[in-house]
Amino acid sequence: FQASARPAPSLPDQRAADFAALDRFVRDSYAFLPTKATDWNRVISALMPRARAARDDTAWVHVLEEALDALYDGHTQLNTNAPDSWRPVPYGLWVQPNNGRYIVTAVQRGALAERTGVRPDDELVAIDGVSVSQLYESRRPRFLTRTDPLADEWALSSAVAGRHNSRYEFLIRRAGRESVLTPSGTTPARDDVEWKRVGSDIGLIAISTFANRDVVPAFDRALEALRTTRGLIVDVRSNAGGDTANARPIIGRLITARRQYAWMTSRDGLGLGPR
Question: What is the pTM of this model?
Fold first, then answer.
């Protein structure tokens, strides 16, 4: 046996090859690229030099994140991050612009924003001492060929999500008075499926994810425990999504005949194929 004499690629060449692989994956497999306002060619040409120049993992992750941010899609993200990376969106807090102000419309139960004390109808003024308007502008996707309200919506969601190492200190305006809110306590650990009786004869099952295959037998245990109740509430308000292979059998427990529950399609050339 004789080892190959080919030298290992240099770090810049390896980064460039990996970034090119990301480019090919998005072009070939990202179904919504044709509908985006993103000039993907500009994304690649602008960021390839930074990809080659990335000398450590943090710089490399940030280049990849910036490329994916150009697609302004909460489903399109890395499964790793640097300490100062922006959190994925949505992050338990929903805000709408209103004549230059930013009004909280919803706060997810158990989320960090709830532990900070933010409430619906609060005006969010600043996070960690930086105005929301400034954060919003900084998160607007680059390399767009046209305006897109979905890009603006993503940018605001990302701005209020903050970075992973953010203090998440909010300056809010409520009933004409400003106050600074900081997180308190810890987010309680939750099982993927939790159940209890509400009153004497109503069952409540809360499902926080469909990503874990164990949610199906857990849902069955919940049904068994609540089988004598008169009614059932299935709470998926805090559900982060997951796999239809796990959601489908849960749906199947609640119907008496086979029926369609979704349309599905796949990438086909530059767009989507038939449903």
Answer: 0.81
